[in-house]
Amino acid sequence: MSLYTIPFRPPCPIIACRVSSSLAVTLPSPPTATATAAALPSLTCALQCPHFETCSGCTHEFNLHRPIIVEEATDFFKSLGVSDFTFDSCRLWGWRCRAKLAVRGSSENPLIGLYHEGTHNVVDIPQCKAHHPNINAAVELLRQGIRELNIEPYDEDQGTGDLRYLQMAVTTYNTSLPAAERYRNGRVQVSLVWNSRNEKSSNSDKLNALANFLWRNGGPRSNLHLIHSVWANFQTSTNNIIFGNRWRHLLGERDFWEHVGGIDISLDPSSFGQANTRAFDNLLRKLHKYVPYGASVADLYAGAGVIGLSLAANKKCRSVKCIEINKESKPSFEKTIDRLPNSIEGSISWHNTDTSIDPLSWVVGSDVIVVDPPRKGLDASLIDALRTISSHKVKPSFKSSSSNIKEEKRPWILREKERAKEASVQVGRETALEDPQSLPQTLIYISCGWESFKKDCKALLTSKCWHLEKAHGFNFFPGTQSIEVLAVFKRSLKKKKTRKEKKKQL
């Protein structure tokens, strides 16, 4: 690892900005002796990306280790009584292990990248400094295939062409290599979003030819061995949704594995996965500290259940309920379950349902709630349930974690619960041994949307049901003003009135 320094360095940076030789950046010439430190931007952690002026992916070039928003977050949490807010940063270049890219232009000159801000004009980004280097290498290989095979990129205006989008996902899980070499040698799962209804459409020959080109030149028999697998997604819609509902595995390994939070996890290309694998691993290990051994956990907005399963394995939870609206996450959850240690004896379940519908029934009976919502924040119904949780006198009558509150009669709630029960996955013993009337003592909020988090945080605290105990920030997206937040709330318990206080009331 090489350490880059310049003559004028800001005092006490949070981390030393280190990059591997494969990710090295060329710094500008040192400033002249007459220049002052205050007059120059800090280049200690500079992006130095040739696409910065046109690409919408990154918003600032300097001090990648500490975006300006960290100061706002520090002040915000201090105003709420948390004076020890921390901010963790790790890899600053080559951190993105999952990327969705648009494909436009022509077969002779394909453009592969992101939209220019405010438009649908694609900016080609072959030398992206945020991407894992092997994503850039796989994109370049694909570009060659598009040219050689005369693959037509998608034309939005006409609705014509073959290749619409790409998803590139890097797995660094390779136990045949020393741990220090696994990240650098990550392999790329390539998902081609094809402009057709299915694999039997008229342009399917081109799809197979492109997949074979990638495998022949980047698969295990090539000199490079860059490609993990090739998938196809079929999409003909004219809206802005990237993926269609139909997926097909074409070549390579079907299962995509990664190791985070102390467990092996499986992620299908249709499942949500964190772009910054290492930062996510740091967050999970921090989260473990706030969950007691043997706790009962409800993991809401769970995706493939990575957070809940990591807690089940590391904290020996007596029960973990994972609730997720995307049914495509179920296969990944089931594969991950199969690799968990045999020593886990608690109950683990996954439920395909909408968290916003009757959220209280998923919350009661748990000691700890973990929420990891999308950027828009928590659903209003969940906020309401959490704000008023201390006033609920819940007496459910259930034999599993997906049962309803006893007197529930609303038909749409009952239908949703029945569907969730049919789509659920249960491992281990059933949860009848839990106290069905217990209410959670800890709420752990993981946020990728700072503005929505502030709003939700204030709503929770003004209810007086919760108080904020700890907060940590993580640099998931260096080069942007986005931070990931881990906030720990504790339920505020009503103090019992003393005899003197009771006499005063009388």
Keywords:
506 residues, alpha/beta, OB fold (Dihydrolipoamide Acetyltransferase, E2P), Rossmann fold, nine-stranded mixed β-sheet, 12 helices, 20 strands, disordered N terminus, methyltransferase, RNA methyltransferase activity, S-adenosyl-L-methionine
Q: Could you characterize what this model shows?
A:
This protein is an alpha/beta fold and 506 residues long. Among the domains are: 98-258, OB fold (Dihydrolipoamide Acetyltransferase, E2P); 290-463, Rossmann fold, CATH 3.40.50. It is 24% helix and 22% strand. It is built from 12 helices and 20 strands. The chain has a 9-stranded mixed sheet with strand order 3-19-20-18-16-13-14-15-17, with helices on both faces. Strands 6-5-4-7-8-9-10 form a 7-stranded mixed sheet. β11 (257-260) and β12 form a beta hairpin. The protein is globular and about 85 Å long. The active site is at 448 (nucleophile). Belongs to the class I-like SAM-binding methyltransferase superfamily. RNA M5U methyltransferase family. S-adenosyl-L-methionine binds at residues 274, 301, 324, 372.
Q: Considering DSSP H and I runs of 4 or more, what fraction of the residues is helical?
A: 10-25%
**Order of strands side by side in the largest beta sheet?**
3-19-20-18-16-13-14-15-17
What fold name stands as the CATH topology of the domain at 290-463?
Rossmann fold
Determine the strand fraction and express it as a percent band. 15-25%
The tally of beta strands, per DSSP, is: 20
Biggest sheet features: 9 strands, mixed
Overall geometry comes to globular
Named CATH architecture of the domain at 290-463: 3-Layer(aba) Sandwich
